[in-house]
Amino acid sequence: MSEVYKLRDYGVQLWLGRLENHDFLWFATSDLNATATTWPILHNYALTYAIYQYSYAIYKGYRPKYDYDLDQMQAYALASYNPQAGRTRLTHNAIDEVTLRTDAVIGSTGKATPARFNTPKLGHRVCLTPVMQKVTSRNVDRARRGFDVFLFTWDGFCPPSVFRLGKKGCPMRVDWQLIEDTEARIPGNEFSPCHAVNPRDIMLSEQESVVSYYPAIIPPHLLYVEARLRGEWAVLLPGGRWVHVPRRIVGRWRPPLSSQT
Questions:
Q1: Which pLDDT band, with edges at 50, 70 and 90, does 259 fall under?
Q2: pLDDT at 95
Q3: In the chain, how many domains are there?
């Protein structure tokens, strides 16, 4: 029989949040031919940074330091995916001018730019449509538009109900619910988490634990959507839904093998 660990015995709490974006949420999941598209999937690294409000005023170096940054936080979110989220295409002027002007611009030499620069170059941004409890149309099912976000916290961290996310700092509103008496175990059979899975959160190798998935190529790296796992730690919620427990959280009661020998 699989071992069972109560998260509260190790100071860990599991939260379920219902997230709504109160403005057009935009980040370039893909950018091709002046069209930047936001996919309806939220990377868990982006969520963790935003929820913990962790950012750099000035960053030294050229490569991100995700492992170092995440070790400084007392929270870790799981990726969220909702293919039914609403999307809106916004058209803008993508001309190569800082001011985005389409008339003849007088440069430092006192001469106007060539006429070919006067024609607008239309670009598009596909954003996630705002969802607000009191504003969203009654004909829209709000339960299908927002995102469910699972968040692990420890050391007394309490997640904020308001934060910003995306390139333009879209305001996000979350209603959090603490899930009581959560227990982590390794299911005896294969299971499918009710959320997208970050491959860097898996304890075992991909060959040992990942049965099937389809990839979502989203920066900073891909996610596993509708994954099927085995031999991984998980929490069983009421209703039969499984929540995968990342290796970062499992390490709080089960240190890596290298530290046990």
A1: very low
A2: 64
A3: 1
